[in-house]
Amino acid sequence: MEKYYRAIDNDSFETFLKKKRKDIEWQQDYIKMILGLNLAVLGLDSGWNILNSVGIKANTIDKAVQKIRGKITNYELKKSQKPVDNKEVQDFYEMWAGVRKLGYTIDDDIKLVAWIGVLKSIKKEHERQNSKK
């Protein structure tokens, strides 16, 4: 996947990595919240310290649960919203059809390396045509 994105659209790959990092950070915070809550339920101060480290400031278990649920809901809402400025991801077959419309003959069992080559060739041709204008 990295090889494909770096060859075709490096900015797209960087965006992918940024999203992946945020997802991993969220997963870490989620695990900390659950761990902290479980320790707090057991009566251990370390549980409250862990909850504080992820921004859950509460003095009762019920309030901690409520704040954790709020964080989960906020995360899910942010995750479900589509960024307005992001390009819509095309699937392979849509791109394949577009490339064929441009006059390229492409087998449907094309290898990834060959596909990258075709897309690079089209991109260079497009840039060359734009530079002539």
Describe what this molecule looks like in 3D.
With 133 residues, the protein is mainly alpha-helical. It folds into two domains: 2-80, no CATH class; 92-132, no CATH class. The protein is built from six helices and no strands. Helix 2 (10-41) runs antiparallel to helix 4 (61-80). The longest helix has 32 residues, at 10-41.
Give the SSE layout:
Blueprint: H1 2-8, H2 10-41, H3 45-53, H4 61-80, H5 92-101, H6 112-132
Helix pairs in contact: 1-2, 2-3, 2-4
Task: State the separation between the terminal residues, measured CA to CA.
Answer: 34 Å
Domain tally? 2
- Please tally the helical runs, counting DSSP H or I stretches of 4 or more residues: 6
The tally of strands reads 0
- Beta-strand percent range: under 5%
The helix/strand class is mainly alpha
Q: If you average the pLDDT, what whole number results? A: 83
Q: Could you name the ranges where pLDDT drops below 50 across 5 or more consecutive residues?
A: none
**SSE arrangement, N to C:** HHHHHH
Give a quick account of the main beta sheet: strands, pairing sense, barrel closure: none
Cα radius of gyration in angstroms: 24 Å
- Shape estimate: rod-shaped
In percent, how helical is the residue content?
over 70%
